[in-house]
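Reopening this ticket.

The earlier resolution said the output was attached, but the attachment link was broken on my side. Pasting everything inline this time so it's all in one place.
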Amino acid sequence: MDNSVLNSTLFLTLLMVVGMLFFIRAAAKDRTQIVTLGSEQDGDQLLAALKQYFVDRSYQVDAIDAVRNQVLLSGQVRASVFLAVFLSLMAGVGALCLGLILTVSLPDVPYLWAVFLGFAPLAGWLYWRKASRVEQVSFRLDETQQPTVGSWLRVKAHRDEVEALQEALNLQVVDNDVIAD
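Inline output:
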């Protein structure tokens, strides 16, 4: 095979491997955000709905700060079996590509691809270990002075939890802040 073709293929494969590593790392990244949500319900109705929502989602109350009118909850988040298998398969394809390119480049080591393929399950294991964690949610409920709005809720949680809460209780986003890692 032409040396320039082999070098360019190796370079592109290495770029793919770097992108794959960042994708696997980002799969379990914490995506906490602070969101202010508005509701047409009054404070007592919204608080009862919040209580039922978090009980249904298996969250436990860790702390209640009466001074700041804030509640801190925690719950166990499970990793996705589908995503763990998908990441392992994706890592396997990337490792196989890299191994095959290196095998063509280094014909003295004919089974180098098998060594790289052996590392593929490590991606799923790393995701599983990082994604299974205790998730914390905190919220502060305040009633506004405007009679048409009802009340607002300031929530600090993972973005998926915020979206599920917003959909379940029919809340509207008022303000959205993403917390940098």
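Reporter confirms the inline version is readable. The longest helix spans residues 3-27. The helical segments are 3-27, 43-56, 81-105, 112-117, 120-131, 159-169.
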